[in-house]
Write a structure and sequence with these properties.
alpha+beta; 90 residues; three-stranded antiparallel sheet; Arc Repressor Mutant, subunit A; two-stranded antiparallel ribbon
Amino acid sequence: MKLENETILEIVPTFRVQWEEVQDCYVVLYPEGMVKLSQSAGEIMKRIDGKKTIIDIINDISATFEGADVTEDVMKFLEVVYGNGWIRNK
């Protein structure tokens, strides 16, 4: 499926994103285990709340990182985690 800028995404209920103090990073928890996220992956995943559109997430991350053009990187990451079943359309 092609993700569009106006798509609203949510994290699939069997997955959970949270900050892990011991790991010093965001992680994705799921019944079989845990995945440590890079800083950029954590920045994206923590913004997926079932309310924001993809363009909202991109604009928020861009503003956080002083106007950096993050569109392509965010879209590629979202396509991967969508394909992995971590997120879905709201």
